[in-house]
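Thought: the user wants the 3D structure for the chain below. I'll pass the sequence to the structure tool as-is, report back what it returns, then summarize two notable features.
Action: structure_tool
Action Input:
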Amino acid sequence: MKVYCQNVWNYNPSEYRNKLIASLVNDFDADVCCFQECGPGTNRAGDAPLPKLLEATYSEVCPELADRNYTGLFYKTEKYNLIDSGYFLYTGHNDANSKSVAWAVIEDKATMKKALVASTHFWWMFRGEEDNQQRLQNVAELKAFCDEMVEKYNIPIIIGGDFNNGENSEQGDEPYKKMLADGFCDIRHTAEETTDLFTHHEYPILNDEGIYVDGAMPGRTIDYIFTYGNAEIKVKKFEILTTQRALDSSDHCPLLGIFEI
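Observation:
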């Protein structure tokens, strides 16, 4: 299973960037796409909405919530059956109700093997301990959900997202360390082939021709792909895309995970 994860930057104009992102997804031939900041008025709108660019190959989880779900989750229609799915908001601080979890249990039509894949986005501000505690609350709510799914399905769980804390970030890294202590496995450290690149960088610049350029190399890590639970899963590869196309598509680099289930 090939998982593409990216915060796609809830910002207009998005048409050019949406096309870049769709091309990156297609180049990777992703099975599942986990997006954050997939805004109803930005990446989901305009002349080239991201879901429209993907619809020939991918189905969205909970499409009826497209007017409010910023953590869009898409799976390859011809390859997977959708067994179960859902969406929930984190409690507490939540700007634009964008801090949420979209999830799906999907079944490979050829092998009949199942996995749960989720897209999530944690609270972002860093004004003080209150904001740090909010992210720790996000961790607790995500763990409670995962424990419920382990009890119900006992299948591999893969979670991709923007967790808004980590190495070199203004938010520190306590929530990330709490996740590791709580049993989440960062595939950066468990993949057979991996990288030490960061994930987040300054915004690309919109030039006079309506094209985003000069996306910089990343200097901090706040985006991750985790696995959870005891169900058997092998992480073959973790990669962070830093081609110029990837850097110009958002302020967050795409994360790529390849799994054997």
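Final Answer: Structure generated. The helical segments are 15-28, 50-54, 129-153, 174-181, 187-190, 244-249. The CA atoms of residues 101 and 145 lie 10 Å apart.
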